[in-house]
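Running this now, will post back.
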Amino acid sequence: MRRLLLVATAVSLLSFPLYGAVDKPAQFGADAVREMDLFARVFERVRTEYVEPVTDEKLIESALNGMLTALDPHSGYMNEQEFREMEVQTQGEFGGIGAEITQENGQVKIVTPIDDTPAARAGLKPGDIIARIDEQPLADMTLTEVVDKLRGKPDTDVKLTVQREGKQPFDVSLTRAVVKVQSVKSHMEPDNIAYVRITSFTEQTEEGLDDAIEKLKQQSRGTLGGLVLDLRNDPGGLLDQAVAVAGSFLDGGEIVSTRGRQADDNQSFTAKQNGDLLHGVPIVVMINGGSASASEIVAGALQDHHRAILLGTKSFGKGSVQTIIPLPGHGAMRLTTARYYTPSGRSIQAKGIEPDITVEPAKIERIAQEKMVHEADLRGALKNPDQNAAAGAAATVPASGAAPGKAAPPPNVPPGTTPAAPSEQSEADGLDAGLLGTPQDYQLARAVDLLRGVRIYSSLAAQKS
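Update: finished.
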């Protein structure tokens, strides 16, 4: 049984390891036996006395899902059909409207629409709340049930009632399609500056990135002036693909480490020596509130190794790893088993990654910001293990500077570096997904300007030396 690691938002794309099936008998202590007896009593009363007949399978599946979802937003139970759909999805192709969604306090929110899908073409945005599907309220539905309603045969229609902050609810009609996620897109900007966008981390991402870089090199005729790596609205995906992408721009060094309760969960992933496909060409990585998990791993690794400048707005903040554990004949459980850490030892769980340069989305003038949901906003989200320590350290640092022996340096910050100042307001992108990578993309224009500046500075420095 192969092992599959996923690292993404609590939506249709996730990042996990796939462990071997659970086949050993359960071991219960005395307390657990008593609680199991309580469960059996309740199960039997519901089964025999509930006002309408209910199957044993439905009761057990609901109980399992309730147990797991109570732990954190990303754990859960998948029946056989849902498990098969998850496996198909990580291959980069599935049916539906093409939106990554999450659920919080009974509300279904869009994390990000996937490029070139019905959801993106209809103008759905991160942070939109789906209130109804075909006039049916979603308040009592699980996330799995919502996904089932959104998916369907190609060329069939579905109507969504959407709530957007600052606006009255409105209806959107979409025609379902076979959603083929083109994981990597690329083109050449002026002045031989390459643009590569990764929409999600699927099984095709590493190969797609290698092909894109090779084509861009050929187009530049050996004079590539820089690379913009766009991870905005990328909800994550496969961990091994995130490691491969980060390693494509690094010459050795740690990319990410995972830490959990079991020995198998404690791992370190490193880049190959001389693995940088661009051989030092400057890189700007673009992130926003829709950049989650696998994309945060790439951004954090390149930031910690000082290989790239991060531009945009704060990322989602999902720093946990889920393990998919098959249950023979019964689907699989998705269980949070570890936290991941960037090379400098940072946990971004419920915190996110702050860009080195904050650039909010804009047109000619700054557009209205719409609050997006972040990992820290999700009910039951894991706490950041560094949070209390950081708060304690900050409380002891005088405004004029730390007195000798009274305050430790900020945790998890590499020597000789200064952490970027957090955004003053809760970052949220009212970003039109249709503008990503186009001439109207304000953030991309700023990234290209930055790379032009780096090239001019490098040229002047070379002349002086």
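The radius of gyration is 23 Å. More later if anyone needs it.
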